[in-house]
Design goal:
Shape: globular
Helix content: 40-55%
Strand content: 5-15%
Number of strands: 7
Low-confidence stretches: none
Number of helices: 8
Oligomer: single chain
Mean pLDDT: 93
Radius of gyration: 18 Å
Strand order of the largest sheet: 3-2-1-4-5-6-7
CATH architecture: 3-Layer(aba) Sandwich
CATH superfamily: NAD(P)-binding Rossmann-like Domain
Amino acid sequence: MNILITGATGGIGQALVEVFYKNSWNILAVGRNKKILEELKLKYGDKIEIYSRDIGKEKEIIEFLEEIRGREIDLLINGAGIGEIGEFENISLIEEQRMIDINIQALLMLTKYFYKKMLERKEGGIINISSTAGFQVGGPLMCGYYATKAYVNSLTFGLIEESKGKNIKIMLLCPGPTATNFKGMKSEIEGAKKFYITTPKEVANQCYRDYILGKNLSIPGRVNRILYYLNKFIPWKIQLKNIEKIQRKKQIETLN
């Protein structure tokens, strides 16, 4: 079984490489960090193929798809994603556009390309990695990021319904706060944060289990799942105030 993972050189993406390797999948790993890709190759040997690509650039996506043309991909995981934190006016237009290029444009191109291939073969699967942020009405201090994840959620839910009866498994993975080097986060979990912040390994293991079980939505972490349901009953103005407080604290921690 062949799996293609974007964003494979860090955080959740790298943890997914480990999980699927242990379950005997052949991995095509895509990422920008050539050094980490080479380390993955040394670690996993013949079970992994590495591709150093910046999928924030349409040209590189097209070149990559041409390079692997003819390869059957049984599962696509769109794991690449970036975020920016700060007041909307202080985040440059270039940074906002790059978020859109990676979080939306690349995911859209790869999903559409491989979904069509899977329809032809009448089998396959796609996992889009989003965030619990995508369920919120908006994200003060991370306006652009939250907006990109709302797109991913909506696109994937729509595809879940369209794919019914076509033997293609579509799943949306929505981690909450995860201990990675993502902007506004720290890779170490301290104190009370251990109750609601997950590790990349925990997210990857939950992702694999839920996909094998045929689930369409995976939200790692019990607290995150509870908050997902409770959030539906919180007025949107209160949601925004709470999110602003959380992101403000992250912003201060990032600066420190």
